[in-house]
From TrEMBL:
<dbReference type="InterPro" id="IPR036736">
    <property type="entry name" value="ACP-like_sf"/>
</dbReference>
<keyword id="KW-1133">Transmembrane helix</keyword>
<feature type="transmembrane region" description="Helical">
    <location>
        <begin position="784"/>
        <end position="806"/>
    </location>
</feature>
<feature type="transmembrane region" description="Helical">
    <location>
        <begin position="738"/>
        <end position="764"/>
    </location>
</feature>
<protein>
    <submittedName>
        <fullName>D-alanine--D-alanyl carrier protein ligase</fullName>
    </submittedName>
</protein>
<feature type="transmembrane region" description="Helical">
    <location>
        <begin position="983"/>
        <end position="1004"/>
    </location>
</feature>
<dbReference type="InterPro" id="IPR000873">
    <property type="entry name" value="AMP-dep_synth/lig_dom"/>
</dbReference>
<feature type="transmembrane region" description="Helical">
    <location>
        <begin position="1016"/>
        <end position="1041"/>
    </location>
</feature>
<dbReference type="InterPro" id="IPR042099">
    <property type="entry name" value="ANL_N_sf"/>
</dbReference>
<dbReference type="InterPro" id="IPR020845">
    <property type="entry name" value="AMP-binding_CS"/>
</dbReference>
<feature type="domain" description="Carrier">
    <location>
        <begin position="633"/>
        <end position="711"/>
    </location>
</feature>
<keyword id="KW-0472">Membrane</keyword>
<keyword id="KW-0812">Transmembrane</keyword>
<dbReference type="GO" id="GO:0016874">
    <property type="term" value="F:ligase activity"/>
</dbReference>
<feature type="region of interest" description="Disordered">
    <location>
        <begin position="9"/>
        <end position="28"/>
    </location>
</feature>
<dbReference type="Pfam" id="PF00501">
    <property type="entry name" value="AMP-binding"/>
</dbReference>
<dbReference type="InterPro" id="IPR045851">
    <property type="entry name" value="AMP-bd_C_sf"/>
</dbReference>
Length: 1213
């Protein structure tokens, strides 16, 4: 806890700056009476020195904050609060997500004598339970405003419609900097706080009971910081590393405040990132050569465990103080830290303190006594007296009693609770003057050293965090009052890391109806309070021991439960957990907040959280689902090696008694265990799980089926874009309003460019009409007319394509590896060209993809493409793309990514290299290299900068080496024939569609009535009617060229079969292109696909079926009473039978392979299904479609949509 003291002791040894109490070259550091005085001093003397650095889970620097920046940001918050009418003594909630942003809120409030109350913000995913707790803090403090980030303020303001928080949320991370507040230059404001003013309120507890807010004065805080600096002998060149939560007293005071007071550098990370990857801590120490660090005992134990598992040696020889705080240190852990981490034993300190003393009372080298207790430091100094008291009198050395403290570091009391303040802070000890703090801890003094032995109160203590039994008991009574008697519930400490619960049943208790009550109470306490329940007893009426005054005999109840001395007739129900929560989970639940949920901070665990939404595959599962049904139930078959690895991962998180057939909740999963499991799976099996994997896969068995065969080795990172290329950072900044105006003008320019692109088509049409020898009946019989007029639409495609090429050359020139801010001219240029390309991909791309026309287009844009390359998808930033001979691009290529920094979001451009004979069906991230003859499978993601070796098959997210890939290279004669055939066929399609459109045009001229808006209706109907009419030839082509196909047919690879399959699929794709807005989701497509050969019933629902099933493969599929979202059906491999989807649902963007059977199952989005699945996730009863709701109503709504489209065109007409 006395992290700062520690930090200071060694800080003073290594710097030329002179901290107070540190003898260095004959000088001393200045002392400060308030923390604001320290900030003003450093912002004036060393304004550009970094005081805080925030790193991510990979120990990559995300933000650095200097003294000047902190001063300016605090001034901005202070000015904002003054404008809101805040007065001296007002309270304001400081509730920020993890990061450096909360510092501006804390110091900004202090600057105008507004009292900040630091607490963790409500979890957006658990507002129902978190808001009442938060509102309890607000009501106790009497606050009107809550400071937080802009993003969180927006979210909470919106949530306020349903959940009243009682405060106005103020975002502070985008306020304009204020150089001054009171008329003087920054760094010289007249107000720096008065020593006895309340500096901030530190809340220690409160869920259903009244919160306790400890009032910390400026003097208390300064004394604490000074004591820590003296104890650690730190100086201005020291570096501290910390990840403890910012709203915990150890993180706030011993970390943030003390480092600022001492003027040294603090490297920080989110506790979420530490839990997900404990090795982050040692990365911080080693990368920044930290001299000081502090954490609870559990964290050191966890780190040592992970170092052993990773077979990694940590070098902490740079550390001068490794401090234990927040919970009792264990002697064997203290010894292991010194031995394994290469720290001198005298540099390992144990710290004692509590929130009522701000954070720190005493500390020193941690030496063990005969009982295994670890010393906590000296009990007497100039500013501290610690005594052991029993029955109001001091006891002799060695005797155990209550720890009392007297020091200027002790807080003034609890906010608004005079009686509790008097009983805790106002105690009198004979033979001593002044008031004493009753800490509530038990201890002893031996040879002037303090040893903490336990707790005096009934408080439940889990790894340094207090949980009050009444809070737990009241929440149980409120939730289960219909089955148990209120006021007869008892919660108590059960071992080191858990709690025990007893509850008394009502007289009318129905044992059969409440057979799972004990388990429900256990789950409730875990969810509401973040505690592991080791035992729950439901007792008979009248069994609970009580005093004559009606109070519960807590000590007797606890003793009877732990010893198992309850009579069997007294216990109605019992729940007992064999494996307790591991210490690190309990602590994080304690210090991060009782309702903490890892899912609310998912950015900490995503491998690529800065990708474009349309580019990032966020589902981790990429291998076969292998699941079968046996008589005794569902089981999962997998290889022995995977079985051992998965079993090790699961048991390391859930304990040795895990049951793969039970739900995660029944296995005792918590949000923290969830984070640990995700990290372990990523480390051991190389798969990134989504944050809601418990909902997607309710049991470990079901999760295992998706993880099968996924564990493998990742790829080395390639340095392209960071070493071989020079990175250019743009300086051409523009403001947000200017950017918005220029983008609006750019949108207009794009529309004008589209209109200009129609000019050649217009002139060609006019010329063709002039050449037409029209008869009196209005018919044209000149061949030139029929030869030229069909080229009008292709000419538009050509004109617009050339316009895109010219605009790219004029606006950007050539893409290059670089990085620039989003508020810059470079971004505006990129945005303008990228919008052109996006429109081109919608209106031109579908007609020329997979042909040499698209090759020519991308070649003109600057892509390095050989003639033999096959382009089956779209490419952006073409100058940065290099493709080898005979390579296939079957997934969009994007050479850019967005990233968030402390100032402005940035865009980074890095090249992508695809080797010869390679095949890219998955996502290749910027900077990646796909080796010659390698393949990236569907739903896979090659990490940024990763380099794939030649000849491998890459799968997964992130992609890993799953074996070898054999590329079957076709002969050059075959390639030439197919390319020529495609060019010829596209020409045929041009005249074919013109003929159909002419027929529809003539027909509409005859049947449409003479109406004012007939012209609108004519052109509105023309395009979908032409496309619909083209589906009739599509059916004919399928049966003429392909016929009825069987999955085991051998002629798939013949040259003629490839050509005709492509021709049928191309015609079908073009014919269905304009149908999307008019008949996109109607059952009409079921009939059309049935006529093409798809075995489908009308009871099924298929989203965008024309994007899933194509004529060449529809014979291979059977669908009955199922829902199929837009997915990929991979039917290129031969199979013995059809693919069948029966009474099931298939999630979005899943990949289904040939011949699989999906029976009564739910397939999550982005799954790769290679094997049969039966009754996975239990889709439930067969869907019985309603004639009205599922048949007639959707068709009516689609018709209504078409009417709305027609009506919307009338004003423009």
């Amino acid at each position: 806890m006395n992290f700062i003291s520690t930090v200071v002791e060694d800080l003073g040894r290594e710097t030329g700056t002179k901290p107070q109490g540190s003898n260095q070259q004959g000088g001393t550091m200045e002392s400060f009476s308030t923390i604001l005085e320290a900030l003003a001093h450093y912002s004036a003397v060393t304004p550009d020195k970094g005081v805080y650095t925030w790193v991510d889970i990979k120990c990559q620097e995300q933000r650095k904050l200097t003294f000047r920046q902190l001063e300016d940001e605090a001034n901005a918050v202070a000015a904002r609060l003054l404008k809101l009418g805040c007065q001296k003594g007002d309270r304001v909630m400081v509730a920020y997500p993890f990061g450096l942003e909360f510092l501006a809120g804390m110091f900004g409030a202090m600057k105008i004598s507004v009292i900040p109350c630091s607490i963790y913000p409500p979890n957006p995913n658990q507002l129902k339970t978190d808001i009442p707790k938060f509102r309890g803090f607000v009501e106790d403090a009497g606050a009107k405003f809550a400071l937080t980030t802009n993003t969180f303020a927006t979210a909470m303001t919106a949530a306020g419609v349903f959940y009243k928080t009682g405060v106005t949320w103020i975002g502070t991370d985008k306020l304009p900097n204020k150089k001054q507040i009171f008329g003087k230059p920054k760094g010289h404001e007249t107000f720096v706080g008065q020593p006895d003013d309340v500096c901030f309120i530190q809340y220690t507890s409160g869920s259903t009971g009244r919160p306790k807010g400890v009032m910390i004065s400026h003097r208390n805080l300064a004394e604490n910081c000074m004591a820590l600096v003296k104890m650690t002998n730190a100086n201005c060149s020291s570096v501290a590393a910390l990840w403890v939560p910012q709203y915990h007293d150890m993180g706030l005071v011993a970390g943030f405040m003390s480092c600022l007071y001492g003027g040294f550098h603090l490297v920080l990370a989110s506790p979420l990132d530490f839990i997900a990857r404990p090795l982050l801590w040692t990365d911080m120490i080693e990368n920044y050569q930290a001299t000081h660090t502090c954490a609870p005992n559990f964290a050191y134990a966890l780190l040592l465990k992970r170092l052993k598992q990773a077979n990694r040696n940590a070098d902490w020889s740079c550390v001068k103080r490794a401090m234990f705080g927040g919970e009792p240190a264990q002697s064997h852990v203290v010894e292991a830290v010194a031995n394994i981490l290469s720290i001198k034993p005298e540099h390992v300190y144990n710290i004692y303190g509590l929130a009522e003393s701000v954070v720190y009372l005493t500390g020193g080298p941690g030496y063990s006594d005969e009982e295994g207790l670890v010393s906590c430091g000296e009990v007497d100094s100039q500013t501290l007296k610690l005594r052991i008291v029993d029955d109001g009198k001091e006891v002799k050395d060695g005797a155990v009693g209550s720890i009392w403290a007297q020091s200027p570091r002790v807080a003034a009391g609890y906010y608004g609770q005079k009686e509790l303040t008097a009983s805790t802070f106002g105690n009198v000890l004979p033979n001593y003057e002044g008031s004493w703090l009753h800490t509530g801890d038990l201890g002893k003094i031996v040879d002037g050293q303090l040893y903490v032995t336990g707790r005096l109160k009934d408080v439940i203590i889990i790894n340094g965090k207090n949980y009050y039994p009444t809070d737990v008991e009241l929440s149980i009574d409120d939730s289960f009052g219909d089955a148990i008697r209120p006021g007869r519930t008892t919660a108590f400490q059960h071992g080191e890391d858990g709690v025990g619960i007893t509850a008394e049943a009502r007289k009318d208790f129905d044992r059969a109806a409440n057979e799972h009550l004990a388990v429900k109470i256990s789950n409730h306490v875990a969810q509401m309070h973040g505690l592991t329940v080791c035992e729950v007893l439901i007792l008979k009426v009248g069994v609970t021991p009580k005093t004559t005054s009606g109070k519960l005999k807590r000590a007797l109840i606890r003793q009877t439960t732990l010893s198992g001395d309850w009579k069997s007739s007294s216990v109605l129900l019992q729940y007992e957990r064999q494996t307790n929560m591991s210490p690190f989970e309990a602590y994080l639940h304690a210090s991060l907040g009782e309702s903490f949920a890892v899912a609310s901070n998912s950015q900490a665990f995503l491998l690529e959280d800065d990708q474009d939404e349309d580019e990032t595959a966020d589902h981790p599962f990429d291998e076969a689902i292998k699941c079968e049904k046996r008589k005794e139930g569902k089981t999962v078959r997998f290889g022995d090696d995977f079985s051992k690895r998965w079993s090790t991962v699961l048991s390391s998180v859930l304990g040795p008694d895990d049951d793969a057939s039970k739900t995660w909740m029944e296995n005792g999963i918590t949000s923290l265990k969830s984070a640990e499991l995700r990290n372990k799976v990523e480390e051991e099996l190389h798969v990134s799980l989504p944050s809601n994997f418990e909902q997607l896969y309710p049991t470990p068995s079901e999760l295992a089926s998706f993880l099968m065969a996924s564990e493998a080795q990742g790829f080395p990172k390639h340095a392209v874009g960071s070493k071989e290329y020079e990175w250019n950072t743009s300086r051409s900044k523009i403001s947000k309003p200017v950017l918005g105006v220029l983008q609006a003008l750019g949108s207009v320019a794009i529309i004008l460019l589209l209109l200009i692109s129609t000019a050649p088509s217009y002139f060609l049409t006019s010329w063709a009409m002039e050449q037409c020898d029209s008869t009196g009946e209005g018919e044209c019989r000149r061949p030139i007319f029929w030869l030229v007029l069909p080229l009008v639409f292709p000419l538009f495609l050509l004109s617009f394509s050339l316009a895109v090429v010219l605009s790219k050359s004029a606006v950007i020139g050539k893409y290059r590896p670089q990085q620039f801010d989003l508020l810059s001219k470079d971004y505006l240029r990129w945005w303008f060209v990228d919008r052109h390309l996006e429109i081109w991909e919608s209106f031109v791309g579908p007609f020329i993809v997979e042909t040499k026309y698209i090759w020519i287009f991308y070649w003109l844009l600057g892509a390095d493409l050989p003639w033999t390359a096959k382009i089956e998808s779209f490419i952006r930033e073409c100058d940065l793309v290099r493709v080898g001979d005979s390579a296939t691009i079957a997934h969009p290529i994007r050479c850019r990514k967005f990233s968030q920094t402390d100032t402005c979001p940035k865009m980074t451009f890095r090249p992508i290299i695809v080797g010869k004979n390679s095949h890219v069906s998955g996502m290749a991230s910027p900077g990646s290299v796909v080796g010659d003859g390698s393949k990236v499978e569907k739903l896979s993601v090659v990490e940024e900068g990763a380099e794939l070796p030649p000849g491998i098959l890459a799968k997964g997210i992130p992609a890993y080496n799953s074996g070898t890939y054999k590329h079957a290279k076709p002969s050059w004669q075959e390639d030439v024939f197919l390319d020529a055939f495609k060019i010829a066929w596209t020409i045929i399609e041009v005249y074919h569609f013109f003929a159909l459109s002419y027929l529809v045009h003539s027909f509409l001229n005859v049947i449409l009535p003479s109406w004012r808006y007939a012209t609108i209706l004519h052109w509105l109907v023309l395009f979908p009617a032409t496309s619909f009419l083209a589906l009739i030839p599509s059916i004919a082509l399928k049966w003429f060229f392909i016929g009825k196909r069987n999955p085991s047919d051998e002629y798939e690879g013949s040259l003629w079969r490839k050509a005709t399959n492509w021709a049928c699929d191309f015609h079908f794709r073009i014919a269905s292109w304009s149908q999307t807005p008019f008949f996109g989701q109607t059952k009409l497509w079921h009939i059309i696909l049935f006529l093409h050969g798809l075995d489908v019933d009308m009871a099924s629902c298929i989203s965008n079926p024309y994007r899933i099933f194509f004529p060449s493969k529809v014979d291979f599929v059977k669908i009955r009473k199922s829902f199929v979202a837009t997915s990929t059906v991979d039917l290129d491999q031969k199979a013995d039978s059809k693919m069948e989807i029966i009474n099931s649902s298939v999630g979005y963007n899943s990949n289904l392979h040939s011949g699989v059977k999906i029976i009564r199952s739910k397939i999550p989005p982005r799954s790769d299904v290679r094997d049969n699945i039966t009754e996975l996730n239990q889709a439930g009863k067969s869907w019985q479609p309603s004639l009205i709701m599922d048949m007639i109503l959707p068709e009516f709504l689609q018709l209504l949509l078409n009417v709305v489209i027609f009506a919307s065109l009338i004003p423009a007409y």
